[in-house]
Every structure is written in C-alpha cells, then in structure tokens.
Amino acid sequence: MSTLAADREIESLMSLHPKGFDLSLDRISRLLERLGNPQDHLPPVIHIAGTNGKGSCAAFSRALLEAAGHRVHVHTSPHLVNWHERYRLAADGGGRLVEDEVFADAIARVAKANEGQKITVFEILTAVTFLLFSEHPADAVIIEVGLGGRFDATNVVTEPAVSVIMPVSLDHESFLGDRVELIAAEKAGIIKSGCPVVIGAQESETALQVLIETAERLDCPAFVYGQDFLAFEENGRMVYQDEDGLMDLSPPRLPGRHQFANAAAAIAAVKSAGFEISHRVADKAMANVTWPGRMQKLPQGRLTELAPKGVDIWLDGGHNPGAGVVVAEALAEQEEKNPRPLFLICGMINTKDQSGYFRAFKGLVRHVYTVPVSLSEASVPNDELAIRAVEAGLSAEPVSSVANALMLLRDTWDGPPPRILISGSLYLAGAVLAENGTPPV
C-alpha cells in the first residue's frame, strides 16, 4: 500500500469504479455540475489532442509561457511513476507537481460529489484537474487529451483559447476506428466553433483534410503547419517562421528532428491563444524544455550502474509505428554525429502494433532484448515479443527484466561503448525511472 494519501484515495476509487475508458461526456458533465462547473472558471486553455507529439507540445507550451513570466497549470496523462505528475500547478519561477495533501483533498471532495454514481476513475481524476486548476491562480492552462478527443473527459471546455491537433496516425483502433480519417475525426472533436485551431505537422493528407474541413465548418481561425507556420534546421539552429516573420532559435533541448515541428506547433498555439512570444522568450524555452520518458537521456542511477562502462542510455515511451519512426530517425541523427552500436531493450502491451513499431528500427539496431512490462496486465510475453521483432527483420532474444538485459550486455559485449534505447511502453518507461531512482519532478 502506498504511503501517499492521494494514492490511497485513488486505490479506493479503483476498487469502486471500472478501469479504462467509457466514451461519453454525460457522467463527467453531471459530476462537474455538482462541483459548480469549475471547467468554466479557468484562465485561457490550450487544449491538445493527437496521436503522437501532444505531450511534447504541452512541454514546449509550458516552457514558452513560463519563459515569458506566466504562471501555468499543466495536465498531462498518463503519468510515469506517480499520479501527481498529471497535475502541475502554477508557481512563481515555474510550476510544481501538486502537493500530496492538496491532491488527496481534491480527490476526496470530487468522490464525495459523485455520490457513488457510475463513473470511471479517469473521469473522476479529470474532474480533479478542473477543480484544482479553478482553485489556484494562473495565467494559462495546458490540458492534454487522454484518449481521442470528441468523447474524452477533458472535452468539456466549451471555449478554449486554442485547440491543437498534433500528428494523427493509427492507435487505439478499437476505440477510435481503424482508418486514419476516422481517428482524425475523433481528434477534431476538441475543435470548438469560432475558437482558433493549430494543426501540427501531419503525415497523412487524409487526416489533414479532415482537420481543415472541420475547422472550416466551425468557422475557426486555422493555422496549419507547412502553410501558416513551419520550422526547419539551418546551421545547427532552429528557424521558426510564420506571418510575423522569422525567429532564429537554439535547437530544442528535446532530441530528434520531429521536435522542431512539435516546438513550432507550440509556438503557434501559444501565440494563437493570445500570448506574445518574443525571440528571447522562444530561445529560452527551447533551451529549458523538459519532457521525461520521451527520448530522455536516462539519468545516473541504480539501473545505469548495471550497464557497460561509457554507455549512452535513452528512454522513450513511444509505442506505435508512428512513434517508432520518429524515434528511429532521432537515433539515426545521433548515429551520424556520434557513431555507436545501438541496442534496443523493448517491452510492449498487447493493444499495440508490435511488428509495426519494430520495423522502424530495421538496419539501425544490432540486437533487441525483449522484456515484460511488469506494471501492465496487458504485457506481451517477452518470448512472443521477440518473435514479433524477428518477424520485423531484427535480431532478438527474450530477457526477464531491463536490469538483466543491461547486465547481459555488460557481460557479453566487447566492442566500443554502445548506445541503448529502452522503449515500447510508457508503463515500461515509468518502471525504469522508478527502478533507477530518478522519477519525474
């Protein structure tokens, strides 16, 4: 049993209410009405949906606003190690994860207001978001969608300062549809009549068309990546361009060329929400942005001590083919600048396209160690996951844990210090950070 009061409250809720998602806004709307509709009493809201990149966009948006001196609330999901990570409350000098006593009190009040009615735990915790954010002063609120958009529990904000749709691709097909245009339509559900919309870089022209047509139908000012704003690399710098001109910026601290587009979407979103972003502010934000578990260099800790000497370890929670592509591209860029043999330690859950994820790494990874995801009941058995990796053209073997994979590599590898990617699941990323003793703060 956890020693944190908020965790005990959540454990109690999970014993009473169903796990997972139940796509409807009726229950959350009823509960919020009993709480006085706190979602209607918030500072300007930046609401972010998408298959990939929405967390990075939230991180960049927070960095931009805080670099400009604004106080910002941020809601993201899922968490990696502690539930508290989902709630960052505004503070001078930068937001802080919600204090346990404050969090536990909010959960208890929301649960009491629900009066035992049928509801999901995610819906209760989303109501907690709105209650906390309405009771603490801030200049802006950043809210990341949990699943989809149209029926996501966060989609009760009727007039966001801006809606943001990040790259859309296949994921959660059983909930959202098995074609990218269907998924795009679900994501577009957060677009509100007359409110600005920022559309991030889309790989699918079909998805892009759905998003643009939705914005046009709802008479929304739309800002589309590649048409109204963009970003590109030039001489090791990031150049951002929109109708106001160019900004020559430090490259984003988050690695990978895809982060240029994510950063650009955030700049466009914050500006569309009515905040002025100067060149100095944008440059500071690019240098300071952080986003744990997404192409994060694993800090020194208990796990890193088990690895080969001089190793370069990266952690990423991406878990679908689209995420595999951008992570593989980021690693290929590192390989060009600093060649090292690359090994993959991977664990995945059974709702994801495992072979599709692995295919992105063909020709790049020397060997894959597949591990179970201990925090998820849906973990793919490590021997089965190794088969999926081999089917995708990779060399692979099952190992019992990340720690054992690191020790096995340490004991068997006699080449130059390798680069290791631990990836495939946010559950796995959280477990690694916890075991390493370096949870997000």
From TrEMBL:
**Which coenzyme or cofactor does it need?**
Mg(2+)
Determine the domain of life of the protein's source: Bacteria
Q: Which InterPro entries match?
A: Folylpolyglutamate_synth (IPR001645), Folylpolyglutamate_synth_CS (IPR018109), Mur-like_cat_sf (IPR036565), Mur_ligase_C_dom_sf (IPR036615), Mur_ligase_cen (IPR013221)
Domain Mur ligase central intervals: 48-270
KW Transport (keyword) present: no
Recorded GO CC terms: cytoplasm
The alphabetized list of GO BP terms reads: tetrahydrofolate biosynthetic process
Keywords assigned? ATP-binding, Ligase, Magnesium, Metal-binding, Nucleotide-binding
Reaction(s) catalyzed by this protein?
Answer: (6S)-5,6,7,8-tetrahydrofolyl-(gamma-L-Glu)(n) + L-glutamate + ATP = (6S)-5,6,7,8-tetrahydrofolyl-(gamma-L-Glu)(n+1) + ADP + phosphate + H(+)
Task: State the EC number(s).
Answer: 6.3.2.17
Look up keyword Protease and say if it applies.
Answer: no
Q: Name one GO molecular function term.
A: metal ion binding
One family from Pfam that matches here is: Mur_ligase_M
Which PROSITE patterns does UniProt cross-reference here? FOLYLPOLYGLU_SYNT_2
Q: Which family does it belong to?
A: Belongs to the folylpolyglutamate synthase family.
Q: What is this protein called?
A: tetrahydrofolate synthase
Q: What is the lineage of its organism?
A: Bacteria, Pseudomonadati, Pseudomonadota, Alphaproteobacteria, Hyphomicrobiales
